[in-house]
From TrEMBL, chain A:
Keywords for this protein: DNA damage, DNA repair, DNA-binding
Keyword Transcription in record: no
InterPro entries in UniProt: CENP-S/Mhf1 (IPR029003), Histone-fold (IPR009072)
Stretches the record annotates as Disordered: 97-140
Origin superkingdom: Eukaryota
Protein family (similarity comment): Belongs to the TAF9 family. CENP-S/MHF1 subfamily.
Amino acid composition bias (Polar residues), ranges on this chain: 118-131
UniProt entry tagged with the keyword DNA repair: yes
CDD domains hit by this protein: HFD_CENP-S
Protein name (database record): Centromere protein S
Pfam families: CENP-S
From TrEMBL, chain B:
InterPro entries registered for this protein in UniProt: CENP-X
Species whose genome carries this gene: Mya arenaria
Protein name, UniProt field: Centromere protein X
PANTHER family for this protein: CENTROMERE PROTEIN X
Gene3D superfamilies the record matches: 1.20.5.4980, 6.10.130.30
Keywords of this entry: DNA damage, DNA repair, DNA-binding, Nucleus
Keyword DNA repair among record annotations: yes
Annotated family: Belongs to the CENP-X/MHF2 family.
UniProt keyword annotation of RNA-binding present: no
Residue runs in coiled coils: none
Subunit details: Heterodimer with CENPX, sometimes called MHF; this interaction stabilizes both partners. MHF heterodimers can assemble to form tetrameric structures. MHF also coassemble with CENPT-CENPW heterodimers at centromeres to form the tetrameric CENP-T-W-S-X complex. Forms a discrete complex with FANCM and CENPX, called FANCM-MHF; this interaction, probably mediated by direct binding between CENPS and FANCM, leads to synergistic activation of double-stranded DNA binding and strongly stimulates FANCM-mediated DNA remodeling.
Location of this chain's protein in the cell: Nucleus
């Protein structure tokens, strides 16, 4: 029975790896077309394998970060800690997060807050690092 | 003019869908390697992480291309990828 389970797990892993390879190939094709270079199948396979190993590292790290914060759900802050080594990347990801938050509907403001509070919420949304729900909670 | 608009819109929708499907793949990969069964990923975090992984692949290809141009090659080789790999791993 366990060999069957192992086999299923193996084929599941194979399928996931194939999915990663497919997406890697897509991204590589786009970039290679832009820069007018020929792609090599071995290079794409190597990139795909490296990405897979990186995902494994990310998974372990993210889980540890969440556990350290005594949470069981991985947060956007955990992801940002993951990419702390490159400041430019961190800035870009902060930008992406702001875009994502901007396209979501705003969280409802609680009824206990007076009109005066609303202006201060507007002022405090300028620092880019914090997400909107955190800011709303801080004002209460 | 309208044709161009629709082509762009279709392309944008296509890209969003591809990104969405890749997010699902990433989620499954993460769940394979979690040591605790209870660990889950936030929707925001998943989107950001997928973006990071896409950038990782883009950097890998981009740096290998740079190396290829330096060497005067028209085709990407494993040697060039191996040359840029250490710094790539250190940066991520």
């Amino acid at each position: 029975m366990t060999t069957e389970e192992d086999f299923e797990k193996l084929t599941y892993t194979q399928r996931l790896k194939a999915a990663v390879h497919h997406t890697t190939l897509q991204i590589c094709k786009e970039h290679a077309d832009e820069k007018n270079v020929q792609l090599n199948k071995m290079v794409v396979a190597a990139i795909s394998e490296t990405t897979w190993k990186k995902c494994e590292q990310f998974a372990t790290d993210l889980e540890l970060f969440a556990k350290h914060a005594k949470r069981s759900t991985i947060n956007a802050d955990d992801v940002k800690m993951l990419i702390r080594k490159t400041p430019k990347l961190l800035d870009y990801i902060n930008g992406v997060q702001e875009e994502l938050n901007a396209s979501k509907p705003e969280p409802k403001k609680r009824s206990k807050k007076g009109k005066g509070k609303q202006t201060s919420v507007g002022a405090s949304t300028s620092p880019s690092d914090q997400t909107e729900p955190v800011i709303v909670e801080e004002e209460s | 003019n309208l044709d161009i608009y629709f082509t762009f819109l279709n392309y944008a929708v296509f890209k969003t869908l591809c990104f969405f499907y890749f997010q699902k793949t990433v989620q499954h990969i993460l769940q394979q390697y979690f040591k605790d069964e209870k660990t889950k990923v936030n929707a925001d975090a998943l989107a950001l992480l997928t973006e990071v992984i896409s950038i990782f692949v883009a950097e890998a290809v981009g740096r290998t291309t740079k190396q290829a141009k330096k060497d005067g090659d028209d085709e990407l080789t494993l040697e060039q990828f191996e040359k840029i790999l250490p710094q790539l791993l250190l940066d991520f």
